[in-house]
Amino acid sequence: xxxxxxxxxxxxxxxxxxxxxxxxxxxxxxxxxxxxxxxxxxxxxxxxxxxxxxxxxxxxxxxxxxxxxxxxxxxxxxxxxxxxxxxxxxxxxxxxxxxxxxxxxxxxxxxxxxxxxxxxxxxxxxxxxxxxxxxxxxxxxxxxxxxxxxxxxxxxxxxxxxxxxxxxxxxxxxxxxxxxxxxxxxxxxxxxxxxxxxxxxxxxxxxxxxxxxxxxxxxxxxxxxxxxxxxxxxxxxxxxxxxxxxxxxxxxxxxxxxxxxxxxxxxxxxxxxxxxxxxxxxxxxxxxxxxxxxxxxxxxxxxxxxxxxxxxxxxxxxxxxxxxxxxxxxxxxxxxxxxxxxxxxxxxxxxxxxxxxxxxxxxxxxxxxxxxxxxxxxxxxxxxxxxxxxxxxxxxxxxxxxxxxxxxxxxx
Length: 412
Fold this sequence. Notes:
Elements: E1 2-9, H1 12-21, H2 25-34, E2 41-45, H3 53-67, E3 73-80, H4 90-107, E4 112-117, E5 126-132, H5 148-162, H6 178-181, H7 190-203, H8 210-219, E6 222-227, E7 231-237, E8 244-248, H9 249-252, H10 258-271, H11 277-291, H12 299-312, E9 322-324, H13 339-387, H14 398-406
Antiparallel strand pairs: 1-3, 2-4, 2-9, 3-5, 4-5, 6-7, 7-8
């Protein structure tokens, strides 16, 4: 069972740098030094055979510049119920990656990158899906699945059902957590830097209550202000003018409010209790808040089904997708790929999609012609009846109505 959210990104370099290396410059430097990333596992697909993050960034920037587009990427976060995948299991994290790759393939004919994280505040595995804002078949910007309400939720539900995973029983648009919400703020600006520091403090295992959280915040140069009018706000010295800046928690993300933070405090407090029923109950409560009522869950049976499916079915992942295990995402790292084979595979897939699209267009045109002919025939019949003194109104045929409905092609 998963939630999926989306936000456009105007800064491909910032988005890629964040999902692979995080925010801390020292941590980034060390990860690059050893040829590693913060991702537990990741995958990437590029039409020109590119295999490195720098190539992905350059491609996103080039397309945006060439077409005058503000948005360089569409950024998705696919987050799963904590009880559905174990973030301490590498096999489960790879499964999350595979599902995210399949979602990216179903959504768009575009270059994409997937990075799976296991270090969320609530303990749920999630995948970042960055898709370059350029359709490789049409040459246009991405038009479909750019809104949760118009197609994205439905597509995600279909994928979950196909993969043997649960579907949200009563779907509501998920509230964006900080990892997605940060894209709404200027890269390196006051709000983004402040939010990053608050997020680091909130995900710190020491933050088990408000007092401890404020202590950790102080280590990041941030203070918490609480008022009856504004609720929680955060203060930090601005880099641009040296003055003290302030931002309401709710204006950053619901995670940073008193209610959102308390859920994470409880999670940290219970996390260390091995086999504790209180910890399990809290995980269920947090899962219900994030995903809805999970109901009865036979995890062992579900994982056996997933293992059987993987061993007996041909995985749908295309050959051109390059995968790694959270290591070697630098330019020189990762397994080599056969670029000629990758390009041939992509071109073949593109041809298939073109043929399928053309066939759908022909079928749609046929339906429209048939509906138009039926309508003309009905109008002619009504005119004859009118000339013969028949009834002055016409009864639409049910088949005509259904034909007209077929012509209304939606994304749902």
